[in-house]
Design goal:
72% helix; 9 helices; mainly alpha; single chain
Length: 177
């Protein structure tokens, strides 16, 4: 993973390096961490190649943590992509099932030719594309919620430890007096 200094020296990023080097994009805060996780997961599933760059560029306007957003994209890698493709296919086929009650309306729309472009896309890419879209949105949402909850738990524990230490110091001072 590139460091801040490497990104600053990259000749391709030079025009926008000042945006990437903004300190707020590299801090771990209660808002930037969940945003980074969500953008990383979304980018990991929405496109198969170049997801690191997409996550980094999406982190700019949303003020998300850039290192975390790029790191989380590794959930999809060459070793796990087959698993995710099979899962996406199953999620897509489950998502696209048409209920028996609505099949009459759907058939009328399909026969009119209004949906021919959509039908062509589904013939070429099938339900896997839809599955990856659903996985991208769901994983980003769940990742955001989990990262927010984890952040709160971690901060609460640190605060409790700090309060315990302060209480112990206060007790020592009171005993000394």
């Amino acid at each position: 993973m590139p460091t801040r200094d490497e990104m600053a020296r990259n000749k391709y990023l030079a025009p926008i390096a000042h945006r990437f080097l903004s300190p707020e994009l590299w801090r771990f805060t209660r808002r930037s961490v969940p945003r980074g996780v969500a953008l990383g997961l979304f980018s990991a599933f929405i496109i198969p190649v170049g997801q690191i760059f997409l996550a980094a560029f999406l982190a700019l306007p949303s003020r998300a943590n850039v290192p975390l957003a790029t790191l989380v994209t590794f959930v999809t890698n060459p070793f796990t992509i087959a698993f995710w493709a099979v899962l996406a296919n199953r999620v897509g086929s489950f998502t696209l099932q048409i209920d028996a009650a609505t099949s009459g309306i759907a058939n009328e729309q399909l026969e009119s030719g209004a949906w021919q472009g959509v039908i062509d896309v589904f013939e070429v890419a099938g339900v896997t594309v839809v599955g990856f879209g659903v996985l991208a949105v769901l994983s980003a949402s769940i990742g955001y919620l989990i990262a927010s909850a984890a952040w709160r738990i971690i901060i609460a524990r640190r605060r409790a430890k700090r309060l315990k230490k302060m209480e112990a110091r206060l007790d020592q001072r009171l005993k000394a007096n």
